[in-house]
């Protein structure tokens, strides 16, 4: 009986570890899908940078496309605005805990006349074991798309 107690404990720890690891892979795949959808939305926007230094959202906001592309990942719905430190970036204010943040980087700039490629970065901190939220893991995915040559 003592041997069973030791073996059962190890097997239960392995099972919980496998489930937690699989959940992290599932969340990461959602981030990758969301980043791809966001990059597609950003590259087709008529003017990525709208009035007031924030995203134009025409035809669809990038953060909305990320949320639609990653339905199982909570995405911050705050509007993307130009970064004070880097004029090539559109960023969200600090997202609420447990929600993914979206960053858009235009290359060489966010100006519609100069924009040749766009990178969308989606990042979140997730806690794979709910009772221990202090053991959170940062996950980040990015996708880059270039404008088609005319």
Structural topology:
Elements: H1 2-44, H2 62-69, E1 81-82, E2 89-91, E3 101-107, E4 117-126, E5 137-146
Antiparallel strand pairs: 1-2, 2-3, 3-4, 4-5
Structure description:
This protein has 150 residues and is α+β, with helices and mostly antiparallel strands. It has one domain (2-146). Helix content is 34%, strand content 21%. It has a 5-stranded antiparallel β-sheet. Strand 1 (81-82) and strand 2 (89-91) form a beta hairpin. The protein is elongated and about 75 Å long.
SS-derived structural category: alpha+beta
Along the chain, the helix and strand elements come as HHEEEEE
Distance between the termini: 74 Å
Mean pLDDT: 87
What fraction of residues sit in β-strands? 15-25%
Name the shape in a single word.
Answer: elongated
Q: How many beta-strand segments?
A: 5
Quickly describe the structure.
The protein is an alpha+beta fold and 150 residues long. It has helices at 2-44, 62-69, and strands at residues 81-82, 89-91, 101-107, 117-126, 137-146. It has one domain (2-146).
Task: Throw out a few tags for this protein.
alpha+beta; 21% strand; 5 strands; 5-stranded antiparallel β-sheet; elongated; 150 residues
